Protein 1
Amino acid sequence: MDGHELLSPHATKAIEYLIAITYLVLFIPFWRFVNEAAPARAFNFSWFHAPEDVYLHPGHAWARTHGGAVAVGLDDFAHKLIGPLEAFQPPELGAPVRQGQKAFTVLAGGKSLDVLSPVDGNVVAVNEAARVHPGETVRDPYGAGWMVKVEPRWLTANLKNLFSGEAARRFLESAAEKLAAKMTPELGLVLQDGGAPVHGIARELDPEHWDDLVRKSLRGE
Amino acid sequence: MNEHALNRPFIDAWVREKIFLGLPFREYARSLATPMNALAAVILLFGLPVTAYRFWKGLGAVTNLSQTNPWGIWVAFDILCGVALAAGGYTVASAVYIFGQKRYQPVLRPAILTGFLGYVFVLVGLMVDLGQPWRLPYQFFLTPGTTAVMYEVGWCVFLYLMVLALEFSPAALEWLGFAKLRRFVGGLTVGIIVLGVTLSTLHQSSLGAFFLMTPGKLHPLWYSPFLPIFFFVSSITAGIGMVIFESTLSHRAFHDRLDPAAPVDMNKITLGLARGGAVVLFAYFFVRLQGLAGSGRWDLLTTGWGAWYLLELLGFILLPSLLFAAAARSSNVKLARAAGVVTVLGVVLNRLNVSLIAFNWNVPDRYVPSASEVLISLTIVTLGVLVFRWIVNRMPVLTEHPDWRGAH
């Protein structure tokens, strides 16, 4: 039994109690640390944002799994690019949508713009609030500003084709860079330090053919 | 038996559908030609004859075991680590059925399958180590040694293996289409789960109890009267680590088997498991400290053995606990997976330390496994992985069978 005799039971007991008390005292902050989720992370760019829990389609539609359905909306980047929406024309309930094909149409500045679906499936819900007040969707594009809900058909396969996490951040960054490259100082739009750009940035950039610019973006080009 | 039972085309169609994954035999055979299969084939090509040789010529012919070191890696790795790593089955089963955490249901079947196959191959390892497999039942019927720890371990393995087979049977029965029997087994679920959790608790800890008999042989830093408790608590951490590791792996490897109609949010499940892992590892760390305090051998921490002990304690218990905690807090799934791997390695390290590395530490004749022993171990693991894959490719493990959605 070499090495296992307790030379001084009192000292040993004292250490055991100390360890137990240390454990209990440390466990409280540890438990709090583990269970209080840190504030939801989001990517913050200078003039638009995206939460981390959405999947992004190259055409700037976002998708978020929600129970068995997938909520779909237009991302903040596209909202800021297009400007205030004048109308939202949803598909009919039950209508099939396919990934990369038209899901719904929005109207802005008198132009109608098609938004591509990020997933395959059937439309199971339409956001009435967005239909009645399309101009409000920009306030909370990833929450109350959802557009339709889709019952997905091949979700796992669909999600593989979407951007999430780090890839989503890179995708948005490159979209922002592409746009920044189009801007000239004369336009008075400086993204990095010039404060928030105009809501409806495309119209400012190219008043004549702004809708082409937007359509390209919404097609993921 | 129905009237088609002896109908040749019916049998052909059945075999093609169930065994060859719906492919004609040639295509199925061609689909098997992958680099991983080639590697597995090479391992088996060498491993199986060596295993047969061990049964033919005895332990002396293939192992470095001796009277001083009668337990080698087959016990340390295949049995002790195998049992610990099979703990995912009872960990998830108790979370889902006893603590009502239904959201872990999607990882239950893979965890039970891992547990079941883990135990089957523990038994294979045991037979390789013992030899004369036909004598295995002797301890129950002919020569029961009711005061031996081994007696209790034997019964636990025997009973728990049957329980695991029953726990897994719904998947097999759904695959075979035996609806009546499937319903009957479904009715037993909760009872079986409770039995399984009880047996696991007994069994995980009794493996630690083995080493209570070896105070002079096991290094004082690892020897503790609390060994059964250490083994039990660490088996929970191993279970959590394995479920994270293995479900991530199999959800990736068997992507096409996942059910697109019922998407599973693996990230949420992983983060929930990480939260549990953080707390259990944190407690385990302090329980281990109590063991050290009980022995009072703080002086040994400054020796080489002390450094090795601290590596296990700090690097493979405290560190993964903090990693899990950070992962749960920041919803970082990748970090949670990494912590899962560290946890699993930690439990493997602990079992190897207790049964091999720090065992017989003061004996001049140290045991080092022979190449044949390693090869046989590798053969057993390879067989386990192949069987796991064979089953997952056919039975509703990662997916729910459409006829049995939401059933127990």
Protein 2
Amino acid sequence: MRIAPVLAIVLRQLYLMRGSPARVLPLFAWVAIDIVLWGFITRYLNSVSHSEVNFVPQLLGAVLLWDFFTRVMQGVSTSFLEDVWSRNFLNLFATPLTISEYVAGLVVSSIATSLIGLIVMLVLASTAFGLSFLIYGLMLIPFLLVLFLFGIALGIFASAVVLRLGPASEWFVWPLPALLSPFAGVFYPVTTLPHWMQLIAHAMPASYVFEGMRAIVAGGAFSGASLAAGAAIAIAYIFLAHAFFARVHRHAVRSGLIARYSAETVA
Amino acid sequence: MPEVLSVRDLCKTYGATVAVDGISFAVGRGEIVGLLGPNGAGKTTTINMVLGVLEPTSGQVTIEDLSVSKRRAAALARTNFAAVYAPLPGNLTVEQNLRFFGMIYGVRDLPARIEALLKQYEIDRFRKTKCGLLSSGEQTRVGLAKAMLNEPHLLLLDEPTASLDPAKAREIRALIREIASKGTAVLWTSHNMYEVTEVCDRVLFLSRGRILLEGDPRALPAAHGKESLEDLFITVAREPLSLQQEA
């Protein structure tokens, strides 16, 4: 894999963001609103609840991690959508650029954009609402890593869906994180779910993160092996998503959709 | 003349529709070949297959002996194109677009190459302008500058002068002649028969996915009893069968 084409995709994203509030604002504005909203909710719950449960690390921490996952996924799909919106596929895919280089460029772009959102969330949650990250300890890093890997996989999958179904299908991929959230056990243990939903939850790397987070906050035992399983599933999903994207791209090359990609020409 | 582009028995079908029907041709080093034909003849389909963005149903395309289907990246590294229907992203400036595509093509000493192209195509004053804000003629020049970024051995041009005024079109034709004189093989589609006569060394007439005629654009009309290339083009468009029988 060549480095220059990967950097070109990242540089293009940087060019687009520079001087474009419409692109920069969503990197941190929505996550900041989420943190503020859930910050006040947790503060209220702490004030009315007579239990010893501290809702700040339970709920606000969960929101922060879930928003990070969403940002990663959207970082990949938004970089891809820039090519959809500017109808750039013919110019792009008639070059020596390989699919792996293109996907790698989307991933690196997402690392840069999601880090901005993460920093804003960490600062806001700790300074305004007293969320102490010491409670998670060093486990915060693997938590973020697993969510990052899963977000990348979902972002590549979402991009492939838009490539296959056409630009109009972008409205189908935006709510994907919300669609998955009930299964991920973001705010409740997976055991709360009915059996069939638990089966799906076990296939979701994010569920291992949130189970682990709750275990740590509750001072209980935490299974590192379980989190490792989550990471392994997430890595497998990245390979599967990449293979799916490559397959969809191949179909688009065979059918001619790459050359005339627009909302009108894609069924 | 060493072959740069070689197309062999190329076919593209969509269900029962045959877009390109077993065509074979070659473009040599420094040669400008015109790909002519009425709308729907298969010109753009052929170009898309050469560019690797459309998979042929059968047949093969090789660029300097590199198969586009098997060694796509290596083959396309020595190829480039400009087409009126593929404008560069309008939300990037001219300079940003050239840098972006230059990095993708792996151009060495990219800043110097960009500067040279900005001057050569007289787009220096638009370097900070977003491509979407340029006139269609200016966009065409930027597209040509992008097409020359990697100093391609094979250049595909789909109606490259369609949006240009006569003076600028003449300049571009001269420029492409100069590019070809340095060894670049050029495959050119156009509906402007005057331009084709002036620029192309050889033309291929496509109709219904097949090559009906091939030859020197200056000699071909007389050989088929027509006064001009335009008359011949109209005959190909309206009565392809008569020419097929004649051939």
